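Protocol step 4 of 6: structure prediction from sequence.
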Amino acid sequence: MRFSIQMKRFLLLGLVCPSLSYASSNVDLEQKIVDLSSRVIELERRLDALESPEMTQMIEQNSEPTNPGDSLDQSNWNRLKVGYNYDEVRELVGEPIKIKKGSMEFWYYSERKLDGPFVKFIFKKVHSWKSALDE
């Protein structure tokens, strides 16, 4: 079977045009990927800056307790952290009503003991706690 020159051109054009269109869409897609990658890199950079130790320290310094030593103030319980020592806990949530010493130490902030707000210490450091809001 012999094709005329026009028929060959037509067939060749039919093969080339879709690949040109495909190449064009590939370039568009690659550019979008590059743009998105750049945006992700910028967002990660900004997130790293926000989560930096310096920023965390600045936030903690600027968020002093409004009622330090008040065990009824939920914001004080929210500032409590695992690893705090006795003095840091007293400064935040105040003196406990009752202290139970043993292999673990419990500071109770209501007569309801473990059913009320308390702080649990292991090796003289905060291990866990339950605030009034957790009841």
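Step 5 (inspection) to follow. The domain at 67-134 is CATH 3.30.1450.10 (Beta-lactamase Inhibitory Protein; Chain:B, domain 1).
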